[in-house]
Write a structure and sequence with these properties.
Number of domains: 3
CATH class of the largest domain: Alpha Beta
Structural class: alpha/beta
CATH superfamily of the largest domain: Phosphoenolpyruvate-binding domains
Strand content: 5-15%
Radius of gyration: 26 Å
Shape: globular
CATH topology of the largest domain: TIM Barrel
Bound molecules: phosphoenolpyruvate, magnesium ion
């Protein structure tokens, strides 16, 4: 029987593959290598998890009602005894030390070995002890998983070609997927501009979000079809449907290939207005796609990936190597490095700030706020960026600036770092350009204040829309309110562009809106000249730009900023975009 489920398509492409379902209550155990210098830390992780498991079990035992059957408490006691047994403690610890594997994997290997031993026993009672081993190991795995720390080197290729079905995925999970060759992912929750979906687009993985309870309807290893554009998931498809989607997959690939003719063309409108097309980089692997797509530089280099899936923040030398690598591979094209925007949905694994749960993380200690709160971590990054600027054209950009004070503090720290480097005789570009992201309504309204004090502005529409319309970008319940055409959003964008014009500094846009062909002409009409987007979108946007004659756009184009009714705005947008071919 064919089952068709509908969600929100957030990353284009067709995938046909088997389902791999992730359940939180059965942690997905992955293997990765632990660097030699972190081995003892990994042993401590396991010891802590075992200690926590012990505490949990003791707490459960203390809450057993007095009239409960004695079996219940002896069951708990057995588990407590197992936690003291060397086969579940000493042996996995030895494995971490000798094989340099992660704690989860060591537990899993020892679990499998013990289950094999029990399987060979004839005694039916002892055979039932297998379940106890699984319960105890599962508890430890869950505790380890809650720490949300993964390895930087995944060796597990079980997921290759699979379609991941999960309740939700963090950006850190998504980063790990790039090495596992997964075909697509589907989640029950999430938002179209969450960092997880941005990463999916960057990795070119088709993705659907917001299919409620999808894990209940799909079975592990079932063949699925995913359309990441329409948001359709099909299970149990007949042969004709599979053939149809295979054909669509070929057409999609042909369409992408056909765009390559734009690669060597300059980016300019039919009426000769030159436009700068820049790329957003999320991951080191993006650099080759960026060079292939003919971007004129990197308009947003997100540095957070350097901090994810590890136990301590990257040192200056490691960061320097990463930034130097990117600027050198861009052959003198400018690279705009954004200082870390950790917090909210991108947890600070590095800082391991496992403090109290925050009710509104998007409004909390994030981005520049966290940078200024952790000046040492910030300083390390600023020094690395400055030192990399000796190897090519680097610009520095601060995220989530909301007030002049924040900008002044950040600039002050930057000046101090420059002074330090000078004293140490280390090279850097003394004229490095500094810009701020305009992604908070307050900054857009006051864009002129910032325009006077920086070299460039960059509009981050993902957050600007989130904060203007008060919709959490990772909450699927309010997804329907996400609207780049809302007059408030458009007016803030326009105000920022005008501020840049007045003070004669460039304004770029690096949010997802810049890479969505539906808005390209409107943004051109509003005066945007620098577009920065995930590299997979570059050629399509170039196609729209090169097929646009600004003098031919409807006269009332900018009236869209006054249209309170989304229906009217959509009709005008259609007019603006005709006859652009829609894919
Ligand atoms: C934005 O907010 O639009 C942006 C580009 O930054 P990020 O998506 O990383 O928050
Ligand atoms: Mg942002």
């Amino acid at each position: 029987m064919t089952l068709e489920l509908q969600g929100i398509g957030v990353s284009r492409g067709i995938a046909i593959g088997k389902a791999h379902i992730l359940f939180h209550n059965q942690p997905d155990v992955r293997e990765y290598l632990v660097p030699v210098f972190s081995v003892e830390q990994e042993v401590d992780r396991l010891l802590n998890a075992i200690e926590q498991a012990r505490e949990q079990l003791k707490a459960i035992r203390n809450h057993i009602p007095a009239n409960a059957p004695t079996d219940v408490s002896s069951f708990i006691d057995t588990h407590l005894l197992m936690l003291n047994d060397s086969s579940l403690t000493t042996v996995p610890i030895e494995m971490i030390r000798t094989r340099h594997c992660n704690a989860e994997w060591a537990m899993q290997l020892q679990r499998d070995a013990l289950i094999n031993v029990f399987n060979e026993m004839d005694d039916p009672y002892l055979k039932t002890r297998q379940d106890d081993i699984d319960h105890v190991v599962n508890r430890i795995h869950r505790i380890l998983a809650d720490e949300d720390v993964m390895g930087d080197e995944i060796l597990d290729d079980r997921l290759t070609g699979h379609i991941i079905i999960a309740e939700d995925l963090t950006p850190a999970d998504t980063v790990l997927m790039q090495h596992q060759g997964i075909a697509a992912f589907v989640t029950e929750h999430g938002g179209a501009t969450s960092h997880t979906t941005i990463l999916a687009r960057s990795l070119g993985i088709p993705a659907i979000i917001g299919i409620e309870s999808v894990r209940r309807y799909i079975q592990d290893n079932e063949l699925l079809i995913i359309d990441g554009e329409t948001g359709t998931l099909i299970a149990g498809a007949d042969e004709a449907t599979i053939a149809e989607y295979q054909q669509r997959l070929i057409s999609f690939e042909q369409h992408i290939a056909s765009l390559s003719r734009y690669k060597s063309q300059p980016t300019k409108t039919k009426d000769d207005k030159a436009i700068k097309l820049l790329a957003n980089a999320e991951l080191p692997d993006d650099i080759s796609t960026i060079s292939n797509a003919g971007a004129e530089g990197i308009g947003l280099y997100r540095t957070e990936f350097l901090y994810m899936n590890r136990t301590s923040p990257p040192e200056e030398e490691e960061q320097l190597a990463a930034y130097r690598d990117v600027v050198e591979s861009m052959n003198n094209s400018p690279v705009t490095i954004r200082t870390f925007d950790l917090g909210a949905d991108k947890t600070v694994d590095g800082g391991r700030s496992t403090g109290p749960t925050v009710t509104n993380p998007a409004l909390g200690l994030r981005a520049i706020r966290l940078c200024l709160k952790q000046p040492n971590m910030f300083r390390t990054q600023l020094r690395a960026i400055l030192r990399a600027s000796a190897y090519g054209k680097i610009k520095i950009m601060f995220p989530m600036i909301s007030s002049q004070q924040e900008l002044l503090q950040a600039k002050f720290l930057l000046t101090r770092c420059k002074q330090e480097l000078k004293n140490e005789g280390l090279a850097y570009d003394p004229h490095i350009e500094v810009g701020v992201m305009i992604e908070i309504p307050a900054s857009a309204v006051c864009a002129e204040i910032f325009a006077k004090q920086v070299d460039f502005l960059s509009i981050g529409t993902n957050d600007l829309i989130q904060y203007t319309l008060a919709i959490d970008r990772i909450d699927d319940h309010v997804n329907y309110l996400y609207d780049p055409l809302h007059p408030a959003v458009l007016r803030l964008i326009h105000a920022t562009l005008e501020a840049g014009k007045k003070h004669n500094i460039p304004v770029s846009m690096c949010g997802e809106m810049a890479g969505d062909p539906r808005y390209t002409r409107l943004l051109l009409a509003m005066g945007l000249e620098h577009f920065s987007m995930h590299p997979n979108a570059l050629l399509e946007i170039k196609q729209v730009i090169n097929e646009t004659d600004l003098t031919q756009l409807p006269r009332n184009t900018l009236q869209i900023m006054n249209m309170a009714d989304p229906f009217d705005a959509d009709i005008l947008l259609e007019k603006i975009n005709s006859p652009i071919h829609k894919h």
